[in-house]
Amino acid sequence: MKTEIILIRHGRPRSADNIRCTASGYANWIRKYNAADLDPRSKPAKLLSLNNYFVMSSDLHRARLTARYYCGHGACEYSSLFREMDIPYYRFPFRLRAWTWVYFSRALWMAGAGGRFESYKDAKARAEMAVNLLEVRAKTHKKIVMFGHGMMNREIRKRLQQRGWTVAEKDNGYWGVNRLHLNG
Questions:
Q1: Do residues 3 and 141 make contact, with C-beta atoms less than 8 angstroms apart?
Q2: What kind of fold does domain 4-182 have according to CATH?
Q3: What's the CA gap between 145 and 102, in Å, rounded?
């Protein structure tokens, strides 16, 4: 049996609107995004049959809901290692669209700007630990599906590729599926 890991990004949160806001409005947008239920209009483009997969998930609300929606039940294992890389927050005196704030703040964060949130360096180290956990579970279960988040799933996929896994399918959008197989 081929060893496989599938990474699925959570569904679109109800609060993912691209509102125009100040820095304090953006901070409020982040809180709402992190606590939001799934948008009932957001559905996966396709549903995979995951009956024979060991189901893992981030412990964040939107990933847990996505696993339950997708599989009909919760995950077998939840881990904070799979949580999204923090959405950084910086105070600037202008109004931007929420997603512009996200991209702008993440660019500063990736360039090394700090704050009261996980550093980019620490987030990458957490991704490395997440990959270790996935590979340990894959030795026992051979077929793993993990419900997670956009940036963290990309970082996990990249690290799995560096360890010899091959990407068979790649989609980073909401409900996006990234399927990887172990070479050898």
A1: no
A2: Rossmann fold (3.40.50)
A3: 27
Residue type, position 45, single letter: A
The DSSP H or E segment spanning 152 is helix 150-162
Distances (CA, A) of 64 to 9, 24, 68: 11, 28, 6
- Residue ranges per structural domain of the chain: 4-182
- Contact predicate 131/156, CB 8 Å: yes
Q: What's 13's DSSP letter?
A: B
Query: Could you read off the pLDDT of 81-133 as tens digits, one per residue?
Result: 999 998 898 999 999 999 999 999 999 999 999 888 899 999 999 999 999 99
Cα 173 from chain centroid (whole Å): 10
Question: In this structure, how many other beta carbons lie within 10 angstroms of the beta carbon of residue 154?
Answer: 19
How far is the CA of 140 from the CAs of 41, 114, 137, 145, 147, in angstroms? 36, 39, 5, 13, 19
The DSSP code sequence of 44-55 is -SS----TTSEE
Angle, to 10 degrees, between the axis of helix 23-35 and the axis of helix 61-71? 40
pLDDT tens by residue, 21-41:
999 999 999 989 888 999 999
Tell the residue number behind the tokens 């996505």, with chain if given.
Answer: 66
Phi, psi of 16 (to 5 degrees): -85, 20
The CA-based angle 79-34-32, given to 5 degrees, is 165
